[in-house]
Design a protein that fits this description.
The complex is a heterodimer of chains A (250) and B (95).
Chain A lengths: L12 E12 L2 E7 L11 E7 L5 E7 L9 E6 L7 H7 L5 E8 L13 E6 L3 H13 L6 E7 L8 H8 L5 E7 L16 H7 L8 E7 H13 L7 E6 L5
Parallel strand pairs in A: 7-8, 7-10, 8-9, 10-11
Antiparallel strand pairs in A: 1-2, 1-6, 2-5, 3-4, 3-6
Chain B lengths: L2 H4 L1 E2 L4 H7 L8 E4 L5 E3 L4 E3 L6 E5 L6 E8 L2 E5 L3 E5 L8
Antiparallel strand pairs in B: 1-4, 2-3, 2-8, 4-5, 5-6, 6-7
The chains are: A alpha/beta (250), B mainly beta (95).
Chain lengths: 250, 95
């Protein structure tokens, strides 16, 4: 965990927005320049703090979506209609604006190339974000760790990072991306069209004898049922890592 | 709202716990005083909402309270009666 090892006290830093990328109609990536960024490990997150003119503060956690091999830090934010922070980050924020953040934090739901695989990544919606940091590092580092991503989205338009995932899956290093759409599907859709379930996981998961490492991130019900299914399939519980989304994370 | 919908992983409290502990706490292991289960703090069940003044960490095996952290009135208060022990990696040590 180089880069985080020597960071002792957590301090708030002022990041500047360098770029904004609309990933889907409801999801935007913020590309940030963070002074003295100590580096991160894929899976770690940052706390973002907003302060209103009257001094009121609101704070939320966002997973880092970028590879630690890059200079900048990317956060991908889904706009939740009744959210307090995400509507500002995903719609109001402009290039050149500043925000306060601290981190990286988290040392449990993390993957580094040295941890190897095979890897099973399971994502629901914007649960893809920390897993994308892992995939981007895997790609940047030229790793050939056998990796499968099972990714559930509402519709094809809601698939975050779709083109980049397609490109990474075509690079011949052994990444397989399996999409499932839970609501609307395009007319010619030949893929999966239901919520992630035990049968889907059974087909996507590596044999337990290969001692795979699994990371599951998404809404709490998806995470809990997927983790339970993997345990039933014979996967070692300590090699299944989960990150649940709260209902009030916006 | 159901209890399941409110449940998070200990991971989500990483920032709050780093305000109190010098070391990263989500990969620290602890033993539940209720059932004896040993696991990483990041893998335990967390109940914390953005407007609440703190967080409750419960054992993922038996749901006993492991740790309560409250940040209010310019103080942090820690309740640790649910943990028999807590073991963290010394980030400064060479391994």
């Amino acid at each position: 965990m180089a880069g985080t090892a020597l960071q002792r006290r957590l301090i708030w830093r002022t990041a500047e927005v360098q770029d904004l990328v609309d990933e889907t109609p409801r999801v935007r990536s913020l590309v940030l320049e963070v002074p003295d960024w100590p580096g991160h490990v894929p899976g770690q997150h940052v706390d973002v703090r907003l302060t209103a003119e009257d001094g009121y503060q609101a704070q939320r956690s966002y997973s880092i979506a970028s590879s630690p091999t890059g200079e900048r830090v990317t956060l991908t934010v889904e706009r939740l209609e009744d959210g307090e922070v995400s509507p500002y980050l995903a719609a109001e924020l402009r290039v050149g604006d500043r925000l306060e953040l601290r981190g990286p934090v988290g040392g449990y739901f993390v993957w580094d190339v040295s941890l190897g695989g095979p890897l099973l990544l399971v994502a629901g919606g914007s649960g893809i974000c920390p897993l994308m940091a892992m995939l981007r590092l895997r790609h940047a580092a030229g790793s050939a760790v056998p990796t499968r991503l099972l990714y559930s989205s509402r519709s094809l338009e809601d698939v975050i990072y779709r083109d980049e995932l397609d490109r990474m899956a075509a690079d011949g290093t052994g990444l397989e991306v399996i999409h499932t759409l839970t609501r609307s599907v395009p007319q010619a859709w030949a893929g999966l069209h239901r919520r992630i379930d035990a049968a889907m996981l059974s087909a996507a998961a590596w044999p337990p004898a290969d001692q795979p490492l699994s990371f599951i991130c998404g809404p709490t019900p998806l995470v809990e049922s997927a983790a339970e299914s993997l345990v039933h399939l014979g996967h070692e519980p300590t090699r299944i890592k989960t990150e649940r989304f709260g209902p009030t994370g916006g | 709202m159901t209890e399941q919908a409110l449940r998070l992983d200990g991971n989500a409290a990483a920032g709050l716990l780093r305000e109190v502990f010098v070391h990263e706490l989500t990969d620290a292991r602890g033993a539940c005083a209720g059932c004896g289960a040993v696991g990483a703090m990041g893998a335990q069940h967390l109940y914390m909402s953005p407007r609440s003044p703190g967080a409750v960490l419960r054992c993922s095996a038996c749901e006993s309270v492991l740790m309560v952290v409250v940040h209010a009135g310019g103080r942090f208060r820690l309740g640790l009666q649910g943990l028999m022990w807590l073991e963290m990696r010394d980030a400064a040590a060479r391994t």
